[in-house]
Specification:
275 residues, mainly alpha, 9 helices, 82% helix
């Protein structure tokens, strides 16, 4: 029903239909016989709308236009996500990203000059860069959390609370029971904070390892193509690295990082605009 509604709306709001319908209504009013002419105008409009909705070429054109609008909206959204993540990086990480992007552009240029690249390989490289950018952002966020949290102080607090609990008398008077409950609750909370720090550090270590792995893959691909003077297998090697990127995407999902680091169906155009 939604598609039929779109067909009807497009057919009705077309410039020529509005012109003829408006002219018919005006003619009916001017003629002095609106009761006779207006039903004819309405019947003609219904016939026109029915014929357009059942016209395969018209439906295909409307569907193509809607698909184009969705692609453009998606492209704008992915571009905004790309620029937002890039702006959020520190200058050092932004330079690190740009260096890898320049490497990818060099690969695109080499393969293009040898007519050995296609849009699929180009998109694969962009998906690699998008995953790399997301990992940099995730590493930065986790690193800031770890650095600004006093892990040593939290561990000292756990030791202190354990010692205070051990020194409490074994009695069951109300004051001792109340104090023990307070200390135990504080200990649980402090241990939870320590676990959060350890979890963040483990996630950070995984992401840093993935970042370095991806950098090494791209660097090896670029250096190998130059050293061997053979770019005939660039597309194949890009596909191999892109296949490995699926594992990285799965890692990112398992780490339960923020929603802005989710993968996109179509990666931002970070290379195609300059290729």
């Amino acid at each position: 029903m939604g598609r039929i509604g779109a067909y009807l709306q497009t057919a009705f709001t077309s410039r020529w239909n509005l012109l003829f319908a408006g002219a018919g209504v005006a003619a009916a009013i001017i003629s002095g016989f609106p009761g006779v002419i207006l039903p004819l105008v309405a019947a003609g409009e219904l016939y026109y709308l029915a014929s357009m909705v059942t016209n395969d070429r018209f439906r295909d054109a409307v569907d193509a236009q809607a698909a184009k609008a969705r692609r453009e909206a998606t492209a704008i959204g992915t571009r905004e996500a790309y620029e937002r993540l890039l702006r959020s990086l520190s200058p050092q990480l932004r330079q690190r990203f740009e260096r890898l992007r320049e490497r990818c552009l060099h690969l695109v240029d080499m393969a293009g000059r040898h007519r050995d690249t296609d849009s699929g390989s180009l998109e694969s490289l962009e998906r690699l860069l998008w995953g790399y950018l997301r990992m940099l952002h995730g590493a930065q966020s986790l690193s800031e959390f770890v650095e600004h949290t006093d892990g040593a102080g939290i561990r000292r607090r756990i030791t202190e609370l354990d010692r205070r609990l051990e020194k409490l008398p074994k009695g069951d008077d109300s004051e001792t029971v109340r104090l023990r409950a307070v200390l135990e609750d504080d200990l649980r909370t402090t241990r939870e904070r320590a676990e959060n720090i350890d979890d963040a550090q483990k996630k950070l270590d995984i992401i840093v390892a993935e970042v370095e792995r991806l950098e090494s893959k791209i660097e090896a691909m670029a250096e190998g193509s130059v050293a061997k003077r053979d770019v005939s297998d660039i597309a194949r090697r890009v596909d191999e690295v892109a296949e490995g990127m699926k594992r990285t995407d799965e890692t990112m999902r398992q780490l339960q990082l923020p929603a802005e680091l989710d993968d996109l169906e179509d990666p931002p155009q970070m290379l195609r605009d300059e290729a």
